[in-house]
Amino acid sequence: MTKTGKKLNKNEISRERSMNRLIQAAFELFVIRGYHATSLEAISSKAGLTKGSVYFYFGSKEKLILHMFEVLREDLVDGLVATLRNPVGSHVDRIIRYIHKGADFGAERPNELLFMIQIAIEFARQENVIATAIRELYGDVHAAVEAVVSEAQAVGSMSSDIDARSFASMIVAVHDGMMLEWHLRGAEISGPDLVKNVRRMLLHGIG
């Protein structure tokens, strides 16, 4: 059954499963190798499907990654933005909920969150459809964080020593850096403790 409630027939179920296997394989390989160094054959092989399966289901590697961005928007980015826009609690509470939501997603689906970070780095300063798409994903998150910071600065609940855009960039950098550190040194550090300490730093500073 689709997310809209439509019941799928046997062929449609098989198609959905194959597409999902390709998507999950691509998430993993793009994190490990990067987009440019990952072949369609490697993705198909990782998914346990035939060599031409990516072409059959998506048409090209570019169309595959654009579809993956749609998955990320629906499953992660829209939720992060909604969390930041939720007016319940203080402005700092909203930032903390954003950090926690990203951490929860990263714990459950690490390849997908790391993929977003990896592709943003790989396509930085490029001008093409993939670079534009990943900038739009990050842009929506940045805009939502910046809006919270601007509101907080207007009422004096956050420092105005740093402009809202730079402040928002710092918060997103802390979020992404936390996830990279967690997965880089996962055997040495506790993920929940790292999130808790980041929360403490945001609330009380490092002084």
Structure report:
There is one protein chain. This protein has 207 residues and is mostly helical. It folds into 2 domains: 52 residues, Homeodomain-like (Arc Repressor Mutant, subunit A); 144 residues, Tetracycline Repressor, domain 2, CATH 1.10.357.10. The chain is built from 9 helices and no strands. The chain is elongated and about 60 Å long. The relative contact order is 0.10. The model has no long low-confidence stretch (mean pLDDT 88).
What are the main properties of this structure?
single chain, mainly alpha, Arc Repressor Mutant, subunit A, Tetracycline Repressor, domain 2, repressor
Low-confidence stretches: none
Q: What is the string of SSEs from the N terminus onward? A: HHHHHHHHH
- The CATH architecture name of the largest domain reads Orthogonal Bundle
Number of strands: 0
Helix fraction bin = over 70%
- How far apart the termini lie comes to 53 Å
- Superfamily (CATH H level) name of the largest domain: Tetracycline Repressor, domain 2
Helix/strand layout:
Blueprint: H1 10-33, H2 40-47, H3 53-57, H4 61-85, H5 91-108, H6 110-122, H7 129-155, H8 164-184, H9 191-204
Characterize this entry briefly.
The protein is mainly α and 207 residues long. The chain has helices spanning 10-33, 40-47, 53-57, 61-85, 91-108, 110-122, 129-155, 164-184, 191-204.
